[in-house]
Every structure is written in structure tokens, then in C-alpha cells.
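User: Before I run my own analysis I want an independent prediction to cross-check against. Here's the chain; please return only the C-alpha cells and, at the end, one sentence I can use as a sanity check.
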Amino acid sequence: MKKSMHRLLLTALAAGIILLASSCTLGQPSYIEGQVTILPAAGEGGSPALVFSACQIIIYDTQTGQLSHVVGVDSEGNYSTKIRPGSYVVDLYRMGSVGRSTDVPAVIQINGGETWVLDITLDTRIG
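Assistant: C-alpha cells:
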């Protein structure tokens, strides 16, 4: 009885260590980040700072179809968010009909510990 209890305890301990090791691997942070470029460029009659403030990156979970993240774009066009591994649709929300982009929507598959870089060019000359 004592040996079987000892084996059961060792088996449970080994299973706990394996589970802990796998959760550490799965727990590595993942990110989606990039830069939004506005055309026409500054100096060509554009006003990128105003356009950046009108943009947000929206991320949908492909498994559930639910909105997963809404990420702001800073005054220089950069965005970044921490995200769980999975499959996502990334798109650019623009207030009104400010420009077009052929870079989004994009379907991406992100793994644990991975950083997915998605740069987006928004051409405001195309309405």
C-alpha cells in the first residue's frame, strides 16, 4: 500500500511538472505590431497626425468571430498589442472614408512567443 501511494504521488508530481513546463511554453507573450504610413507624405499636402488620430487597428478572433482587440495608432503611426496565440483578422478602422489600403484586412496565425509585424500603408488620395 505504501509503495502504491508513493508511485501515485510520484506520478502526480511528474504530471504536474510536465503541465507546468508546457504552460510556461504556451505562456510566452506574443505581439502584433507595425507602423501605419499615410500617403501623401508630410510636405505633400498631407496631414498625417490628424489621420493617425482617426485610425485604429481592429483585431478579430477567427475562431469565434468576436472582436479581440482595438489598438490605437500613436502620432508617429506605430501600434503594438500583446495577444494570445491564435488565428486573427487584422484590419484598419478609419473614421469616415479616409483612404484605402491593400494591406488589410489580413489573416494571420500567431504562435506563442512570436511577434507578427504588419505594416499598413493608407493612401488618403483614394477615397
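Sanity check: The two ends are 78 Å apart (CA to CA).
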